[in-house]
Design goal:
This protein is of the alpha/beta class. It contains 5 helices and 7 strands; from the N terminus they run βαβαβαβαβαββ.
């Protein structure tokens, strides 16, 4: 399905201005008109609070794991205007421990760099077509980390899906 994205707003947090420009150009080709930029998590959280974007795309932001810190903050900080906002983490780090760390802070989708316009479009489309329920525990708030449902699992730890209130 071809979507028209002209009415959504996106916050892109990218440490490289050149890579921000690439992301902005791709989003513009999708028809997105409202694109906000930040180059660090402090400014990113400030823009997130003020603009309340419909989608956030963030880079890993270096060796300090700032991108993950930002995602955890927007999911758990009581100043967060929307802890349920979809987040696409753009990263070149694909080692299993990095992917697990990203999943465990509450990313919605992982987009591996370098990426194509089609792969970004597919991630955004997946957020629309296959939204995952959010899970809240003592230590986690984010999309259900399971992409697949295994009907045959019936152990005592099987979670029951309960609908959460619709965001916005």
């Amino acid at each position: 399905m071809a979507y028209k994205f002209q009415n959504i707003s996106v916050l892109v947090i990218e440490s490289s201005r050149a890579l921000f420009t690439v992301a902005k150009d791709v989003l513009t080709t999708f028809g997105i008109k409202e694109i906000h930029s930040a180059y660090d998590i402090k400014k990113g959280f400030e823009i997130f609070r003020r603009e309340k974007p419909d989608l956030i795309m963030t880079d890993w932001l270096g060796d300090k794991n700032d991108g993950l810190t930002f995602i955890k903050q927007l999911r758990t900080d009581n100043r967060s205007p929307d802890p349920f906002v979809p987040v696409i983490l753009m990263t070149g780090f694909t080692h299993e421990d990095k992917v697990i760390a990203a999943r465990d802070v509450g990313i919605s989708e992982l987009l591996v760099k370098p990426y194509t316009a089609l792969s970004l479009y597919n991630k955004i489309e997946s957020l629309i077509e296959n939204p995952r329920a959010f899970v809240r525990t003592r230590n986690f708030l984010g999309p259900d980390r399971r992409h697949k449902r295994i009907a045959s699992f019936s152990g005592p730890e099987k979670r029951v899906m309960e609908p959460l209130p619709v965001r916005r």
